[in-house]
Amino acid sequence: MQERPLDPSLKLLLDALALAPDNAPLRMHVASAMEKAGQHREALAHYDSLVGDRMLGDEALLGAARCALAAGDTDGALQRVTRLLERVPEHAVGLPIRARVREKRREHK
Question: CA 37, 40, 46: angle at the middle one, nearest 5?
């Protein structure tokens, strides 16, 4: 599969992140932009690096679950969404993602 050229605004974000790699909000923005651009595996790496962040951890788990699912990694998606639901049991977006993962895995519980 041929890679799409990198969007100029995404390149600028990546350049900024290279200068400030510990900037968690910027990394979250990069992850979200990569996810929207269909670069799920790259976005997943950024989301995963934020999972331990006190402020962004839940949002990062959610993004990581979405990206893992989009990349076809149902095991990874289920692991991440389960961690999110352990933290926030009735998470309004986490529950439907878990249902989609189970549907793809043909688990009807």
Answer: 100
